[in-house]
Amino acid sequence: MSEVVPGLSIGEVAEHTGLSVHTLRFYEREGILANPVRRDPGGRRVYHQDDVDWLTVCLILRGSGMPLPAIRRYTELVRAGSGTEAERLMLLREHRERVLDQMDQLRKCLDLVNFKVGVYEDVLDQLAASSASGTDIGR
Amino acid sequence: MSEVVPGLSIGEVAEHTGLSVHTLRFYEREGILANPVRRDPGGRRVYHQDDVDWLTVCLILRGSGMPLPAIRRYTELVRAGSGTEAERLMLLREHRERVLDQMDQLRKCLDLVNFKVGVYEDVLDQLAASSASGTDIGR
DNA sequence: CTAGGAGCTGGAGTCGACTCTAGGTCAACC
DNA sequence: GGTTGACCTAGAGTCGACTCCAGCTCCTAG
Fold first, then answer.
1. 10-residue block means of pLDDT along chain A (139 residues)?
2. Distance (Å) from the C-alpha of residue A38 to the closest C-alpha of chain B?
3. Contact A114 B105 (CB under 8 A)
């Protein structure tokens, strides 16, 4: 997907992920990174490929509405290593339900919007036609 | 869908829609009801079928992530009557794009989650199998 | 050697969308 | 006629998720 680079600055990661540097630091405070970010001698964050990969997973989860506390919990479980698989599975299954619910809602909304868009397109076509044929005066 | 009733109290509407009475009043303040709600002689809100119908539409839009300001704008346009169809159409088309984007994100997330659920199910099956055959000690 | 730019921290501020409180009205039941 | 319960208003509070600020340290280019 992306080339493997040895170390990335927070700014570079921001650019890669689309998050702001603020948000990256915020996520770190919130315990959302798998391992506490390494630092260079000057105390600056150095991100590695695995951090970026993990962030990418988190972004997908966030983008589908998983709240930060749930992502933190999941992160903790992954960090804790083996023995936590059952809870991770549970968390993921719960989230899957919520994702499916959301898809359902979106489908309903899409139906509604498609219907209404159709209605308004017709209305506007009518208006265009009648004004073109001169049966309508201005406005 | 639902029987037509002459007048509903805010509590009844809350029950019908799943919104709290607080939220109903809040939405009204926010200008999200098509017509300012009628009142009985005592000053209490009396909702009619059209209010409930409109609320239902709004809920679908909200549930698909349309922000309140956009819903308010749409409401204003509907209230303003004919002549505003073009803008309504624009609003709806924009929202449709956002809905489609969200569906895409959700699909990506669902793929990820399905994959991970599969992995963890396998891991747990393995564990169960090996502990059943006695090749594993406790924990 | 200094000016700029990217990072750092701790903490404050913002924003959207509710959610609740205080203090009051009103009709109905016991 | 007192109490309950649903409703009213104005305004305050909460919560999640950022987003920004002040004041500092480094490094690099001019």
1. 70 96 97 90 93 96 97 96 94 97 98 97 89 60
2. 27
3. no
